[in-house]
Known about the structure:
Layout: H1 2-33, H2 38-45, H3 55-73, H4 95-111, H5 118-128
Helix pairs in contact: 4-5
Amino acid sequence: MNSSINESDKRRWLKTAAGYAAGLLFGLGLAVSGMTDPARVVGFLDVVGAWDPTLMFVLGGAVITTFIGYRLVLKRPAPLLGGVFQLPTKRELDAKLLGALPCLASAGGFLATAQGQRLPLLAVFRYRCWPCW
Length: 133
């Protein structure tokens, strides 16, 4: 029984370490791509003003990487550190999801800005997407 506890602890430690490594890799990718620069993110989200399309390449790279990664990973019979793959089963788009998209997009833009820029943006987003705020 002692060996099963050690194996369980080992698996839990591996899951935790894998989560930290994935978070570190994600954060490093954000920093290298410039997505941690609030001015660049606001410039990308400002499609009616001085739009900065450079983050479109970052998003395109993320979509391509995810597309390839899912194809490779789902060929495995089970995840490396888990029992079964947990994938969503619902495939259709409903009004609730489509109605939430503008609110999520504005909230993401709001949270992506620096602390000093949030107060003026609160007034802007309040009038553009009033159900969110």
